[in-house]
Amino acid sequence: MNRKLKTWLEILIVSTRLGLTSFGGPIAHLGYFHEEYVRRRKWMDEKSYADLVALCQFLPGPASSQVGIGIGVMRGGVFGGIISFLGFTLPSVIALIIFASLLHTFGIENAGWINGLKIVAVIVVAHAVLGMAQNLTPDLKRKTIALFTLVVTLLWQTAYTQIGAILLAAVVGFLLFRQQTNKEEQTVSHFHISRRFGYICLTLFFGLLILLPILRNLTSIQWIALFDSFYRSGSLVFGGGHVMLPLLEQEFVPAGWLSEQEFLAGYGAAQAVPGPLFTFAAYIGAVINGWQGGLFATFAIFLPAFLLILGTLPFWDALRRNPKIKAALIGVNASVVGILIAALYDPIWTSSIHAPIDFALASILFSMLVYWKLPPWVIVLSGAIGGMFISYL
């Protein structure tokens, strides 16, 4: 027992340090994890880490958080996965809950530096668009899938439209790419979770996805409505936290849970903290229902990630050898690019860039991030200062 406690404590300390220092988004997080867990501590070898990353890229949800959970599971069992998640996630959750309370207490949503953070959101998503487009739409077929998704999601802005576009892209991907996926070399990985436990987690994942909207329609309980919105958003996001933005915006802004101004102010602040971008949900929950709402929203949006990673680890080898599933995923990834471009335009661009000087600041910040390769915290700080400067003009 002492050995287990020592292992869990070690996982907590290491993951918390990563949660306090891991700026730069999911790809950067995977780099931090590789350095810490593979190179320094040698908790797993290169091949096992590559297999785990491949699985988490395959699943919807926050890839870096799921990798962290998987490493915790492999090191210290299911409880080790929970500890690893808490250490990596809680620092940014706490920071965003505090920001939400300050926003309400002092009415700072119209402050100049908040407007600067909104412009930071523009350039961060624009950078994500460029990187993902290069990787996920390298040929004309995938560019066409992305264009179709972009047009559809801009003209019909509902969560169901996005889900429908992703499903259609999966079908198209299966039809177009099922031959080429057979050519890739397969490897075997080993994850120590029973298949029975995996079945239970997957049953819970799909059961909640079906049951929660029914319960929401049958009752008028606010907490069920919140749980459904966050759980569904966490279940349907392929491509990382930036793609979550349009789902959450459609769930909460039109329904009046929070204003467009509050939504974008929080998204800007989420760029300023380390850890996963999915913790933006903690801010939304805190705006709606205080710190209890923030913790509740965090639980609801990350629960699908937990259920999926724990549910699929025992079956990963069979899934990754299936060319039909891999081909469908190629189409889904291309559609993610279209959703991301749509989100860049509306609501991010339309709510943040109002004048030539706003575009000038965005151009400077984009150059600092993409060409000068400055750290994300420098971009965030510069955006806040630039926004304050613009407000005095």
SS content category = mainly alpha
> Helices and strands, in N-to-C order?
HHHHHHHHHHHHHHHH
What general form does the structure show?
A: globular
Relative strand content: under 5%
Q: What number is the mean pLDDT?
A: 84
How widely separated are the two ends?
63 Å
**Helix proportion range:** over 70%
Work out the number of β strands.
Answer: 0
Number of helices: 16
Radius of gyration: 20 Å
The count of domains is 1
Major sheet summary line = none
Unreliable stretches (pLDDT < 50, length at least 5) are: none
Structure characterization notes:
One of its GO terms (molecular function) is chromate transmembrane transporter activity. By secondary structure, this protein is an all-alpha fold. The protein has one domain. It is 80% helix and 0% strand. The chain is built from 16 helices and no strands. The protein starts with a helix and ends with a helix. The relative contact order is 0.17.
What labels would you give this structure?
393 residues; mainly alpha; globular
Short description:
This protein has about 400 residues and is mainly α.
Per-chain topology:
Blueprint: H1 2-21, H2 25-40, H3 46-58, H4 63-106, H5 112-136, H6 140-155, H7 159-177, H8 195-218, H9 222-235, H10 241-252, H11 260-270, H12 280-312, H13 316-320, H14 323-352, H15 356-370, H16 376-391
Helix pairs in contact: 1-4, 2-4, 3-4, 4-11, 4-12, 5-11, 5-14, 5-15, 5-16, 6-7, 6-14, 7-14, 8-9, 8-12, 9-10, 9-12, 10-14, 11-12, 15-16
Family: Belongs to the chromate ion transporter (CHR) (TC 2.A.51) family.
InterPro entries: Chr_Tranpt_l_chain, Chromate_transpt
Subcellular location: Cell membrane
